[in-house]
Specification:
Elements: H1 5-29, H2 32-40, H3 45-58, H4 61-75, H5 78-92
Length: 96
């Protein structure tokens, strides 16, 4: 396996993850249809996911998790640090 393959895969998957994050935000969190559904039927599992995701964004859980993983990844040597940095990206992109 090439040494560049993980970087290439990361560069391909990162824009897809960004698009999925913004799709979830604007298509699920801020869509008027879901607001109406969740007002009427708050016990639906989709509304529970929407509520918990909103709380995680509001209390900055995703951002702090990304920051913690990035800081730990900065001091951990080798591949483990690289993968912690990738994990920080995974949590950091939806926190935008």
């Amino acid at each position: 396996m090439s040494r560049r393959l993980p970087v290439i895969v990361l560069l391909v998957l990162l824009p897809l993850w960004l698009a999925a994050s913004y799709g979830a935000r604007y298509g699920f969190m801020e869509d008027g249809q879901w607001v109406g559904i969740c007002v009427d039927e708050a016990s639906r599992w989709e509304c529970q996911v929407r509520s918990n995701l909103g709380l995680m964004i509001h209390f900055k859980v995703l951002g702090w998790t990304a920051l913690g993983a990035a800081l730990i990844g900065f001091v951990v040597p080798g591949r483990a640090g690289w993968w912690l940095a990738v994990l920080a990206l995974v949590f950091g992109v939806p926190a935008l």
